[in-house]
Amino acid sequence: MSRLKNPPKLSLPQNDDREGPRARDLEKARDSYRYTYDKPNIRGLAMLEKLPLAELPSPEWAAEAAAAGVSISLNSAKIKGDAERSDPSHPDHKGLLGRLLGAGENFVGDLFDHVSGKEEEVDTHSAKQVAQFADLYQEWRVPDVASECFLDDTFARARVAGSNPAWTRQVDPSTGIPDDFGVSEAHYAAAIGGDDTLEAALKEGRLFLAEYRELVDATPGSFPVPPGIDIDYDTDPRGWDAAYKAREASYATTGQPKTPAAPLALFAVHGPNKVLSPVAIQLFPNGTHGGAHRVFTPSDGMNWVEARTAVQCADFNVHEVVSHLGLTHLVQEAFALAMHNCLASRHPLYRLLHPHFEGTFFINTSADKSLVSPGGGVDTILNSTIGSGVAITGKAVQGYDFNASILANDLARRGMADADLLPDYPYRDDALLVWGAMHDWVTAYVHTFYGSDADVVADTELQAFVRQVGQFKVDDGSGNLVGGGIGGVGEAGGGVSTRSYLTTMLTQIMWNGSGQHAAVNFPQRDLMSYPPNMAGALVGPIAQGAGGDPRNLLAMLPGHSLAREQLGLTVLLGMVHHTNLGAYGAGAFPPQVSDHLNAYQAALGTVESTIKARNQTRPSYSYLLPSLIPQSINI
């Protein structure tokens, strides 16, 4: 993973009297960091063509990842009762780091293959009781959510402090509940009771909606998934494409079909304590698959539990392919490519941004080669075919609006900014603290190097950076296609013209690769590894009739083998914490910003103390503690 060695003296391009060396620096970087829009699996998005040696993992990162792999492998061996491999001194464990380092950009794929146990015979319905899922945790304690996952309070809290905490939105009182969601006053009364009404809750802005429409057209996958593709994409892309298309069709005739759902879930704030509570769930928008769909409420007993389970599965899937892979990993890759192509290494903004992209190219390359490949971990544990999942990812990135996604703008756009209306929103409250400390640091940094707005306008490299992030597959004048395709970057009229916007833009880029990624990545281990709380896939029918039977829930949940694959992947991704926010290392910046950096680090310490104090009076939410936020996306 690239790190600056003997960094050059910083200067803006308009102040640099060494124009020739600067131009050569950029030319060399452009040759190493070329764009491609034709990766084997993540199609149609801007990604790095070929991983430079400088982007391979550092020994420190590799050791952390390998240690996580050994822990997961030991857990798997203990589940299977394999006494020999349950010993940490077994050769498979002791030699793992060396084997993985030799794998290069296949590191993550080989690591996942090592821990997933794909060789085991499939057992789709091994659990006789929900409590048996706790037996999967042999090396670690069972997550707290295991004892709480069937509570409505836990289901509601997942919207504000779960693994996908920036998804739910307020129902706009002026437009109302979507027409294809058949919630009535009777449903609201069954869920909330008392004197409160659906009409009053809507008028007062107390209704909130989690929608998973992205999944409406997703093709259901199967378990086990079809065999992978044994064709080299680089030497035979047409053969790969044909095999990929044929494989997509083969899910329908392979194994057990997974169960689709694209639910709508309504929540309401009510009572003197303004508690968020679930109101109703509909498994598909009305009109999908030919008709109206039943609305479930908490009064529906086991049917409600099954409907709730379907929402959690949908949230798992949208989290992985949109909120996590698409809107953090791949959006950051577009900015990282533009940085290397447009900002010389002596540019102050290159120096600021570079640590916030460490490891991102490597982990994304690994994801394309293994985790989101046919037969890979994502294909195995998610509900849709891998082709459907990647298509949803592509649509999300292509529809991303950078300015609308700036933290404060996103909270306002979703109607989630008002702490009086929605007092209990830990993600919002903690994120604003971290973002604010980061913004203060960036403000001081920008003002150190840009004396005025005119300096911003005159910075040709900065303007090229902003322009290139927004372009898509544009010839750069030398025959290379460039452009990240990220919408909404820049001020009115394009480009950047003020220090104020520049500061906000940089803060959001840094936040997306640090705090935002931490908020969606690290809950995977605690919340998404336990299938009764969040199943990556459903493998049995979701109840539609009256009544309900607890056996139906077990039939829906993944069996032993699939559950163990889900556990292995989510624990692996949620276990590696490499680097810490604000810890840039000695010599990272010149002396003129030392006081500002010290102030930033002190501010992060204050944020840490504030969040820890909050956790004394609320159910703990620790994913945005600065000490637990890596500097960049590196897992």
Question: Could you provide a short overview of the structure?
Answer:
This protein is of the alpha+beta class. 47% of the residues lie in helices and 7% in strands.
Describe the structure.
The protein is an alpha+beta fold and 635 residues long. 47% of the residues lie in helices and 7% in strands. The chain is built from 24 helices and 11 strands. It has helices spanning 19-32, 59-80, 91-94, 96-101, 107-116, 152-161, 185-192, 198-203, 237-250, 302-342, 348-353, 360-371, 377-381, 386-398, 402-405, 407-413, 426-449, 453-458, 460-470, 499-521, 523-528, 550-556, 560-575, 594-614, and strands at 35-38, 43-48, 169-170, 207-211, 222-223, 256-257, 264-270, 275-282, 295-296, 472-475, 481-484. A 5-stranded antiparallel beta sheet has the order 3-4-7-8-9. A two-stranded antiparallel sheet has the order 1-2. Strand 1 (35-38) and strand 2 form a beta hairpin. Helix 5 (107-116) packs across helix 12 (360-371), helix 10 packs across helix 20 and helix 17 (426-449) packs antiparallel against helix 20 (499-521). The chain is globular and about 80 Å long. The termini are close together. The model has no long low-confidence stretch (mean pLDDT 93).
